[in-house]
Amino acid sequence: MTLELACDSALAALVEDTTVYANKRLTGDLWKLVLRSPRIAPLVQPGQFVHVGFDDTSRHILRRPLSVHDVFCVEGDDALHLSLLYQVVGKGTAFLTNCSRGDRLNLLGPLGNGWHLPKDARCILLVGGGVGWAPLHLLANTAQSQDAEVHALIGARTASYYTTLVLDKGDGPFCHDDKPPVIASGDSLDKPPVIASEAPEGCEAWQSTAAVRDQEASHSATVFFHPATDDGSLGHHGFNTDLLESLLATYRFDYIATCGPEPMQRIVAEKARQHGIACEVSLERRMACGLGACLSCVVETTDGKKRACIDGPVFDAREVCW
Amino acid sequence: MKLEVNLAGLSLKNPFTVASGTFASGKEYADLWSNLDKRDRPLCHASLSLLGAITTKGVSLNPWPGNEGIRITETASGMLNSIGLQNPGVEEFCAKDLPWLATQDVPVIVNVAGHSTEEYVAVIQRLEQERTVSAFEINISCPNVDCGGISFGVDPKAASQVTQACRSATKRPLIIKLTPNVTDITTIARACEAAGADALSLINTVAGMAIDAKSRKPVFSRKVAGLSGPAIKPIALYAVHRVFNAVDIPLIGMGGIASAEDAVEFLLAGATAIALGSHNFTDPLAVPHILKDFMHWCEQEGIKDVSELIGGLQ
Ligand SMILES: Cc1cc2nc3c(=O)[nH]c(=O)nc-3n(C[C@H](O)[C@H](O)[C@H](O)COP(=O)(O)OP(=O)(O)OC[C@H]3O[C@@H](n4cnc5c(N)ncnc54)[C@H](O)[C@@H]3O)c2cc1C
Ligand SMILES: Cc1cc2nc3c(=O)[nH]c(=O)nc-3n(C[C@H](O)[C@H](O)[C@H](O)COP(=O)(O)O)c2cc1C
Ligand code: FES
Questions:
Q1: I need a labelling partner for B172 at 20 to 30 A (CA). Which of A107, A176, B28, B77 fits?
Q2: For residue A42, what is the DSSP state?
């Protein structure tokens, strides 16, 4: 199967002063930021990111790249909002935790070359390591609207990290719709739904809120989650990549997308290659301009050095020289 | 209000240019600016022609791969970079960037990089065939390459020799870009002036390093990297001030400019033009924003001609 452009990815970036709608710790050092973004949010394609600017530029002169996790409306406001999931790892992300409702945050975006989900994909696998789930979430929604069966192999530290990451069970004003997330029956799928055996009760298969919102998508498309946790508190005890081989043997995936730690992505890319499955990876590099001008973010590819900010962050796995 | 300045025979509609390497050839920024809604545009036609001149990324004779590993890190009020002058070489620059730049209605200063005097000259000779090139800025001050670059900029003899060789290769304005990583920048400045430079750019980045305490390793593969941003502004201002008093040729001032007032300070210290560098990363609309603020500042202060500000330190 050839990788097709699911979207037109010409540079359509804008600079927007967004307003913080909510900023909440989900669990541990995982936070979620919801921004009112009437101008950038409508342009976002799955896999794209925004470059977040800080207003204390006397300390932080560089923006921070964060993937767009979701795009949605909140109650009583027609303007689109977008959410970012972020892990506090250093000064910039620590600074972000200070934002509160009503604050302004300057975004540059949407940036980058997102996922290229083949239009005829029937069954896809998303492999996310920790907060690497962020850019995969919108892709899951898109795949569902294309009627593809979506499997998500998620690695997380603990059960609670996993559930907040994936199921958005943070106790904030994060309910995207007036309707709560629905657990799909999977009735109308060709195959009977295969529920990941280790999943906690009630969370095995989850219909995304976007699918609920979209009247046309009342086909009960589901996401089948396959969790792995570092401490064994949920699902497989160990790396999510330990489960790859058995998933690849069980399902006929025609597309794999992955984001997370590079060693994990590398294993996924290698397995995909062995099985002849189209695979895309989303790579992280330090970025200054985010626009393709400064060459801070280069990735070594079979076609020479490319820029993660504009040629990526999503790359064809076969193209990357690991 | 008269914004126009004359930089060594190059007429600039205002004193603003960009610092080499922070702006590529400008297309990425021009694309962004053209996406702005009318109501968001700080000036009515935000295109590259807003600038007095554009200064390109360093161009070398052959393609350079740049440095391996991590290339940037943030520091207090600044950043370190170790890009290593990655560029596709002068042929590709002529084929891809110059035709686009020719449509932009803005003077083009091409920043030239080389490992040897011969390489600088060869790049100039190739660019001499191109009408779009308005001036050359010779980078003898980059801390991020092993051979060439800064080694010419720290020794008055070497600086003079490169300047002389470049001088004999072109009649177009020749700007030499200086490093602050020297004992006395005025010695180098005088040597370049004597060897035929028409103008000087200062400063390039300040040599620095970053260490990862956990891994106990340097962050950058070459250890050394170049510090830029507001952190270096005082160093840059002082360098401009001293060189202004030491030579008679015009200066392009840069180093940490992040506001209209910063730009004014550089003019007062003696710069004829100023370049916005790392601040483009903080605010990709820095050029239109600061230009607008600058005009406003001049209006409020009753400045009729920006030339009044140049070297106007009391
Ligand atoms: C396209 C893209 C999408 C991303 N999406 C997400 C996301 O959705 N959620 C999330 O939690 N993180 C994401 N990251 C990683 C995130 O950008 C970094 O964790 C963050 O910049 C760290 O900033 P800091 O100031 O807290 O860390 P510090 O270590 O203090 O940062 C110092 C400098 O290094 C840069 N840096 C450090 N780590 C990284 C990294 N892993 N990737 C890129 N730059 C880094 C910072 O931007 C900053 O310039 C993404 C990175 C990229 C490139
Ligand atoms: C990412 C980056 C790349 C640069 N590349 C070049 C270059 O190719 N040639 C050059 O002469 N200077 C280069 N410089 C130096 C700048 O042009 C400028 O002299 C320096 O950054 C100081 O200005 P600033 O503090 O406003 O950034 C680069 C600086 C940065 C931050
Ligand atoms: S961040 Fe500047 S080129 Fe990618």
A1: B28
A2: G
The rounded Å distance from CA A201 to ligand 3 centre is 44
The whole-number average pLDDT for the span B212-230 is 96
Q: Determine the structural domain holding residue B232 and report its residue range.
A: 5-61+87-207+228-308
Whether B214 maps to a domain, the answer reads: no
Record: contact B278-A288, CB cut-off 8 A: yes
Q: What is the value of pTM for the model shown?
A: 0.91
Quote ipTM for the complex: 0.94
Whole-angstrom distance, CA of residue B253 vs CA of residue B241? 10
- Asked if B142 is an active-site residue, the reply is yes
Q: What is the pLDDT of residues A111-137, one digit of tens each?
A: 999 999 999 999 999 999 999 999 999
CA dist., res. B48 & res. B17, Å (int): 10
Residue B67 lies in a domain: no
Size of interface A-B (CB pairs under 8 A): 103
Residues in B 198-217 with any Cβ partner in A closer than 8 A = none
Domains and CATH numbers, chain A: 14-111 (2.40.30.10), 123-279 (3.40.50.80)
First to last CA, chain B: 22
pLDDT digits (tens, 9 = 90+) for B230-267: 999 999 999 999 999 999 999 999 999 999 999 999 99
CATH number at residue B39: 3.20.20.70
